[in-house]
Amino acid sequence: xxxxxxxxxxxxxxxxxxxxxxxxxxxxxxxxxxxxxxxxxxxxxxxxxxxxxxxxxxxxxxxxxxxxxxxxxxxxxxxxxxxxxxxxxxxxxxxxxxxxxxxxxxxxxxxxxxxxxxxxxxxxxxxxxxx
Length: 131
What we know:
The chain is of the alpha+beta class. The chain has helices at 25-35, 72-81, 96-110, and strands at 13-20, 40-44, 49-53, 59-64, 85-92, 113-116, 124-126. The longest helix has 15 residues, at 96-110.
């Protein structure tokens, strides 16, 4: 057996969507993040990109998904959720737990829904109601 570097597991991206109830979702999320203690975020309005720093390393990146890229399944989900805007959400798989905590905070403050970018749009993170 050769001595040397052990192979690192390949870095895998997780892909989610954020369906916002209103236009200007990234600015709204950025404003909420600025109020959160210890939360780092950078917003590039012209590019339609929001980068949310995670504790210790990594980030959650949100980017506006242009309407011409919405397919039939996404349109059906958008109608069901009564969404006005859609953002792609990406983060490294090893940061999933931290990213999901950030998503939970954001939906409680801003509404909307985070969902897996897949055929069923699962799992979903949405605002808890009632109680």
